[in-house]
Design a protein that fits this description.
This protein has 189 residues and is mainly α. It has 6 helices and no strands. It has one domain.
Protein backbone atom coordinates (compact mmCIF):
# COMPACT_ATOMS: atom_id res chain seq x y z
CA UNK A 1 0.00 0.00 0.00
CA UNK A 2 1.47 3.37 -0.99
CA UNK A 3 2.21 5.98 1.68
CA UNK A 4 -0.47 8.44 0.48
CA UNK A 5 -3.10 5.69 0.26
CA UNK A 6 -2.18 4.56 3.77
CA UNK A 7 -2.46 8.09 5.16
CA UNK A 8 -5.75 8.74 3.37
CA UNK A 9 -7.15 5.53 4.90
CA UNK A 10 -6.28 6.74 8.40
CA UNK A 11 -7.63 10.22 7.66
CA UNK A 12 -10.92 8.68 6.57
CA UNK A 13 -11.17 6.50 9.68
CA UNK A 14 -10.29 9.43 11.93
CA UNK A 15 -12.87 11.66 10.24
CA UNK A 16 -15.53 8.96 10.56
CA UNK A 17 -14.80 8.59 14.28
CA UNK A 18 -15.15 12.34 14.80
CA UNK A 19 -18.33 12.41 12.69
CA UNK A 20 -19.81 9.49 14.65
CA UNK A 21 -19.16 11.35 17.89
CA UNK A 22 -20.69 14.49 16.41
CA UNK A 23 -23.82 12.61 15.35
CA UNK A 24 -24.09 10.94 18.76
CA UNK A 25 -23.78 14.27 20.59
CA UNK A 26 -26.27 15.97 18.31
CA UNK A 27 -28.83 13.16 18.60
CA UNK A 28 -28.36 12.77 22.36
CA UNK A 29 -29.00 16.50 22.76
CA UNK A 30 -32.18 16.29 20.72
CA UNK A 31 -33.56 13.43 22.82
CA UNK A 32 -32.16 14.67 26.12
CA UNK A 33 -31.87 18.48 26.10
CA UNK A 34 -30.30 18.39 29.57
CA UNK A 35 -27.40 16.40 28.12
CA UNK A 36 -26.68 19.16 25.62
CA UNK A 37 -27.19 21.91 28.17
CA UNK A 38 -24.79 20.25 30.62
CA UNK A 39 -22.12 19.99 27.92
CA UNK A 40 -22.64 23.63 26.94
CA UNK A 41 -22.28 24.64 30.59
CA UNK A 42 -19.16 22.49 30.97
CA UNK A 43 -17.70 23.95 27.76
CA UNK A 44 -18.41 27.50 28.93
CA UNK A 45 -17.01 26.85 32.39
CA UNK A 46 -13.84 25.05 31.34
CA UNK A 47 -12.94 26.79 28.10
CA UNK A 48 -15.04 29.71 26.94
CA UNK A 49 -15.08 31.74 30.17
CA UNK A 50 -11.32 31.38 30.56
CA UNK A 51 -10.51 32.18 26.97
CA UNK A 52 -13.13 34.51 25.54
CA UNK A 53 -12.53 37.42 27.89
CA UNK A 54 -9.03 37.97 26.49
CA UNK A 55 -7.98 40.55 23.91
CA UNK A 56 -7.54 39.12 20.39
CA UNK A 57 -3.74 38.54 20.48
CA UNK A 58 -3.93 36.76 23.84
CA UNK A 59 -7.12 34.99 22.75
CA UNK A 60 -5.34 33.67 19.65
CA UNK A 61 -2.50 32.37 21.81
CA UNK A 62 -4.90 30.72 24.27
CA UNK A 63 -6.93 29.13 21.48
CA UNK A 64 -3.74 27.90 19.83
CA UNK A 65 -2.44 26.35 23.06
CA UNK A 66 -5.81 24.78 23.90
CA UNK A 67 -6.14 23.21 20.46
CA UNK A 68 -2.47 22.22 20.38
CA UNK A 69 -2.90 20.39 23.67
CA UNK A 70 -5.94 18.52 22.34
CA UNK A 71 -4.16 17.57 19.11
CA UNK A 72 -1.01 16.45 20.95
CA UNK A 73 -3.10 14.22 23.22
CA UNK A 74 -4.92 12.76 20.23
CA UNK A 75 -1.62 12.10 18.45
CA UNK A 76 0.35 10.74 21.40
CA UNK A 77 -2.68 8.76 22.55
CA UNK A 78 -1.92 6.51 19.61
CA UNK A 79 0.93 5.01 21.61
CA UNK A 80 -1.76 3.18 23.58
CA UNK A 81 -2.73 1.12 20.51
CA UNK A 82 -4.82 4.04 19.24
CA UNK A 83 -7.46 3.66 21.95
CA UNK A 84 -6.87 7.09 23.50
CA UNK A 85 -6.87 8.71 20.07
CA UNK A 86 -10.22 7.11 19.27
CA UNK A 87 -11.69 8.04 22.66
CA UNK A 88 -10.61 11.69 22.46
CA UNK A 89 -11.80 12.03 18.84
CA UNK A 90 -15.15 10.54 19.79
CA UNK A 91 -15.45 12.72 22.90
CA UNK A 92 -14.61 15.87 20.93
CA UNK A 93 -17.22 14.90 18.36
CA UNK A 94 -19.87 14.34 21.04
CA UNK A 95 -19.12 17.71 22.65
CA UNK A 96 -19.17 19.56 19.32
CA UNK A 97 -22.39 17.85 18.23
CA UNK A 98 -24.16 18.51 21.52
CA UNK A 99 -23.05 22.13 21.73
CA UNK A 100 -24.06 22.80 18.12
CA UNK A 101 -27.49 21.25 18.63
CA UNK A 102 -28.13 23.46 21.64
CA UNK A 103 -26.69 26.57 20.02
CA UNK A 104 -28.69 26.19 16.81
CA UNK A 105 -31.87 26.49 18.89
CA UNK A 106 -30.62 29.74 20.43
CA UNK A 107 -28.84 31.41 17.54
CA UNK A 108 -29.83 29.56 14.37
CA UNK A 109 -27.74 27.77 11.79
CA UNK A 110 -26.42 30.94 10.13
CA UNK A 111 -24.76 32.09 13.36
CA UNK A 112 -23.31 28.63 13.94
CA UNK A 113 -21.89 28.51 10.43
CA UNK A 114 -20.44 32.00 10.87
CA UNK A 115 -18.93 31.02 14.22
CA UNK A 116 -17.36 27.77 13.04
CA UNK A 117 -16.69 27.78 9.32
CA UNK A 118 -13.93 30.42 9.10
CA UNK A 119 -11.58 28.74 11.57
CA UNK A 120 -13.12 25.26 11.34
CA UNK A 121 -11.78 24.73 7.83
CA UNK A 122 -8.34 24.66 9.45
CA UNK A 123 -9.07 23.35 12.94
CA UNK A 124 -11.18 20.30 12.03
CA UNK A 125 -8.68 18.98 9.49
CA UNK A 126 -5.95 19.42 12.12
CA UNK A 127 -7.96 17.38 14.62
CA UNK A 128 -8.74 14.71 12.03
CA UNK A 129 -5.10 14.56 10.92
CA UNK A 130 -3.97 14.30 14.56
CA UNK A 131 -6.33 11.35 14.92
CA UNK A 132 -4.93 9.76 11.77
CA UNK A 133 -1.38 10.16 13.08
CA UNK A 134 -2.47 8.69 16.42
CA UNK A 135 -4.04 5.70 14.71
CA UNK A 136 -0.89 5.21 12.64
CA UNK A 137 1.11 5.34 15.86
CA UNK A 138 -1.17 2.71 17.37
CA UNK A 139 -0.56 0.44 14.39
CA UNK A 140 3.22 0.98 14.74
CA UNK A 141 3.14 0.02 18.43
CA UNK A 142 1.12 -3.09 17.64
CA UNK A 143 3.56 -4.05 14.90
CA UNK A 144 6.56 -3.45 17.16
CA UNK A 145 5.11 -5.77 19.78
CA UNK A 146 4.70 -8.36 17.02
CA UNK A 147 8.41 -7.86 16.23
CA UNK A 148 7.88 -6.53 12.71
CA UNK A 149 8.41 -2.79 13.12
CA UNK A 150 10.30 -0.01 14.93
CA UNK A 151 7.65 2.18 16.56
CA UNK A 152 10.16 4.78 17.76
CA UNK A 153 11.29 5.46 14.19
CA UNK A 154 7.66 5.73 13.09
CA UNK A 155 6.87 8.06 16.02
CA UNK A 156 9.66 10.38 14.88
CA UNK A 157 8.42 10.34 11.30
CA UNK A 158 4.81 10.98 12.35
CA UNK A 159 5.96 13.72 14.74
CA UNK A 160 7.53 15.44 11.75
CA UNK A 161 4.15 15.42 10.01
CA UNK A 162 2.57 16.83 13.16
CA UNK A 163 5.02 19.73 13.29
CA UNK A 164 4.87 20.38 9.55
CA UNK A 165 1.10 20.25 9.08
CA UNK A 166 -0.89 20.22 12.33
CA UNK A 167 0.79 23.09 14.16
CA UNK A 168 0.46 25.58 11.27
CA UNK A 169 -3.21 24.67 10.76
CA UNK A 170 -3.91 25.16 14.47
CA UNK A 171 -2.10 28.51 14.42
CA UNK A 172 -4.08 29.74 11.40
CA UNK A 173 -7.34 28.57 13.01
CA UNK A 174 -6.55 30.39 16.25
CA UNK A 175 -5.75 33.64 14.47
CA UNK A 176 -8.96 33.46 12.43
CA UNK A 177 -11.04 32.55 15.48
CA UNK A 178 -9.63 35.41 17.54
CA UNK A 179 -9.54 38.17 14.93
CA UNK A 180 -11.99 37.35 12.11
CA UNK A 181 -14.78 35.22 13.60
CA UNK A 182 -15.98 37.92 16.03
CA UNK A 183 -16.37 40.39 13.14
CA UNK A 184 -18.28 37.86 11.08
CA UNK A 185 -20.55 37.04 14.02
CA UNK A 186 -21.39 40.72 14.45
CA UNK A 187 -22.57 40.80 10.83
CA UNK A 188 -24.97 37.87 11.22
CA UNK A 189 -26.27 38.34 14.76
Amino acid sequence: MSESLKISHYLTVSGLILAAGFAAGFILSIYDPMFGESLVNLFEEMIANQIMSAEPPLLALQLFLNNLEACVIIFIGGAFFGFISVAILMLNGVIIGAVLEVMHKEAGYLAIIAAILPHGIFELPAVIASGALGLMMGRAVKNELAGTFDASFEALRLGGYFVKYIIPFIAIAAIIEAFITPAILQLVT
